[in-house]
Amino acid sequence: MSSFWSFWSLWITIIALANIFACVWLIRWTEKKRPGEAASHETTGHEWDGLQEYNNPMPRWWLWLFYITIVFGLIYLVLYPGLGGFKGVLGWSQYTAWQEEVDTVEERVAPLFAQYAEMSIPDLAAHDEAMQTGRRLFGNNCAVCHGADGGGRIGFPNIANNDWQWGGEPEQIYKSILDGRAGVMPGMGRALGEQGVTEVSAYVFSLSGRGAPEDLVTRGRERFQALCASCHGSDARGNTAMGAPNLTDGNWTYGGSLEAIRTSVRDGRRGRMPAQKDLLGEDRVHLLAAYVYSLSMDERENAAADNADE
Ligand code: HEC
Ligand code: HEC
């Protein structure tokens, strides 16, 4: 906040006040009778095609309106901020007005979120009322990137399935949201060359059960083991510690066409999940983690059932 006595503050104050007093002066000046002027209600002697101009003064009430607006303006500038760095005697500001509203809402909902924060994420995910609030929070804060249903779109991962770049355990989801995530896939075009990109891309393409020329796949597999396995794993199922995605499950963040895979390999990718800690606070993030967890509940249960069968 600049002080009232700083240059720009005084600059604005002087111009604002000078304008107001110039208005007063202008009104008084136009009221004054000037030498040689026709008397009130007399014709000025101007005539156009039979129309004569009379020297009628402004109606009194109109004149008073001008004075009233000027007085109003001055009172306003005393009460509210308007004169440079002067804050107004009421201490009102857009920020305090907004903060008051936020505080009122926060006072009402904070105990509820605090109560939810006591519950474990899986328990909360089964709590209907909490999940309705979670859905609203998700719609306001997350849907722009991840889609209203969490299904994602190109460049923004699907978080409604049970395929996790950074891990699907409750604490991992919570951490993804609280602190954000930044996956770095280095561009490999230089290291691989065009032919190398073609081979390794054909191999990655084939991993999700799609056909690709056998000789390219064979050479691509070797290159993958040398260059990619350190992050994506030798089975290409990914590594949640560094956010390297599973390349075998047919779920793609950047697209699974041969062209999209080639671009990922050649140029690299850098997804960024913004940290929500300072924006939403821990209690809301806890509730959102439960909501995200709930989106993949069916898939989780199926996976658990499959494991039990084995
Ligand atoms: C500006 C866009 C953006 C917004 C807003 C956003 N996200 Fe993300 N989110 C991303 C991106 C991009 C990634 C992938 C990060 C990476 O590539 O490492 C991601 C990753 C995630 C992950 C990890 C997914 C995994 O597979 O491990 C979770 C969980 C998540 N977001 C939840 C949320 C929630 C909940 C919100 C709302 C509070 C949210 N995101 C808001 C862009 C966004
Ligand atoms: C340093 C670790 C690292 C290495 C080495 C690496 N990757 Fe990645 N890769 C990642 C990460 C992390 C991501 C996710 C990027 C993001 O979140 O934006 C990724 C993303 C990808 C994607 C996009 C997946 C999708 O869902 O759209 C493909 C394809 C891919 N990598 C293939 C490869 C291939 C092929 C190689 C070897 C030539 C390779 N990667 C080497 C870390 C790595």
UniProtKB/TrEMBL annotation:
<dbReference type="InterPro" id="IPR009056">
    <property type="entry name" value="Cyt_c-like_dom"/>
</dbReference>
<feature type="binding site" description="covalent">
    <location>
        <position position="228"/>
    </location>
    <ligand>
        <name>heme c 2</name>
    </ligand>
</feature>
<keyword id="KW-0679">Respiratory chain</keyword>
<dbReference type="GO" id="GO:0009055">
    <property type="term" value="F:electron transfer activity"/>
</dbReference>
<keyword id="KW-0677">Repeat</keyword>
<dbReference type="InterPro" id="IPR008168">
    <property type="entry name" value="Cyt_C_IC"/>
</dbReference>
<dbReference type="InterPro" id="IPR036909">
    <property type="entry name" value="Cyt_c-like_dom_sf"/>
</dbReference>
<dbReference type="GO" id="GO:0005886">
    <property type="term" value="C:plasma membrane"/>
</dbReference>
<feature type="binding site" description="axial binding residue">
    <location>
        <position position="232"/>
    </location>
    <ligand>
        <name>heme c 2</name>
    </ligand>
</feature>
<comment type="pathway">
    <text>Energy metabolism; oxidative phosphorylation.</text>
</comment>
<feature type="binding site" description="covalent">
    <location>
        <position position="142"/>
    </location>
    <ligand>
        <name>heme c 1</name>
    </ligand>
</feature>
<feature type="transmembrane region" description="Helical">
    <location>
        <begin position="61"/>
        <end position="80"/>
    </location>
</feature>
<dbReference type="InterPro" id="IPR004678">
    <property type="entry name" value="Cyt_c_oxidase_cbb3_su3"/>
</dbReference>
<dbReference type="Pfam" id="PF14715">
    <property type="entry name" value="FixP_N"/>
</dbReference>
<keyword id="KW-0406">Ion transport</keyword>
<feature type="domain" description="Cytochrome c">
    <location>
        <begin position="129"/>
        <end position="208"/>
    </location>
</feature>
<dbReference type="InterPro" id="IPR038414">
    <property type="entry name" value="CcoP_N_sf"/>
</dbReference>
<keyword id="KW-0472">Membrane</keyword>
<dbReference type="GO" id="GO:0020037">
    <property type="term" value="F:heme binding"/>
</dbReference>
<feature type="transmembrane region" description="Helical">
    <location>
        <begin position="6"/>
        <end position="27"/>
    </location>
</feature>
<dbReference type="GO" id="GO:1902600">
    <property type="term" value="P:proton transmembrane transport"/>
</dbReference>
<comment type="similarity">
    <text>Belongs to the CcoP / FixP family.</text>
</comment>
<keyword id="KW-0249">Electron transport</keyword>
<dbReference type="InterPro" id="IPR032858">
    <property type="entry name" value="CcoP_N"/>
</dbReference>
<dbReference type="GO" id="GO:0005506">
    <property type="term" value="F:iron ion binding"/>
</dbReference>
<keyword id="KW-0813">Transport</keyword>
<dbReference type="Pfam" id="PF13442">
    <property type="entry name" value="Cytochrome_CBB3"/>
</dbReference>
<feature type="binding site" description="covalent">
    <location>
        <position position="231"/>
    </location>
    <ligand>
        <name>heme c 2</name>
    </ligand>
</feature>
<feature type="binding site" description="covalent">
    <location>
        <position position="145"/>
    </location>
    <ligand>
        <name>heme c 1</name>
    </ligand>
</feature>
<keyword id="KW-0375">Hydrogen ion transport</keyword>
<feature type="binding site" description="axial binding residue">
    <location>
        <position position="146"/>
    </location>
    <ligand>
        <name>heme c 1</name>
    </ligand>
</feature>
<comment type="subunit">
    <text>Component of the cbb3-type cytochrome c oxidase.</text>
</comment>
<dbReference type="InterPro" id="IPR050597">
    <property type="entry name" value="Cytochrome_c_Oxidase_Subunit"/>
</dbReference>
<keyword id="KW-1133">Transmembrane helix</keyword>
<protein>
    <recommendedName>
        <fullName>Cbb3-type cytochrome c oxidase subunit</fullName>
    </recommendedName>
</protein>
<dbReference type="GO" id="GO:0016491">
    <property type="term" value="F:oxidoreductase activity"/>
</dbReference>
<keyword id="KW-0408">Iron</keyword>
<keyword id="KW-1003">Cell membrane</keyword>
<feature type="domain" description="Cytochrome c">
    <location>
        <begin position="215"/>
        <end position="296"/>
    </location>
</feature>
<keyword id="KW-0812">Transmembrane</keyword>
<feature type="binding site" description="axial binding residue">
    <location>
        <position position="273"/>
    </location>
    <ligand>
        <name>heme c 1</name>
    </ligand>
</feature>
<comment type="function">
    <text>C-type cytochrome. Part of the cbb3-type cytochrome c oxidase complex.</text>
</comment>
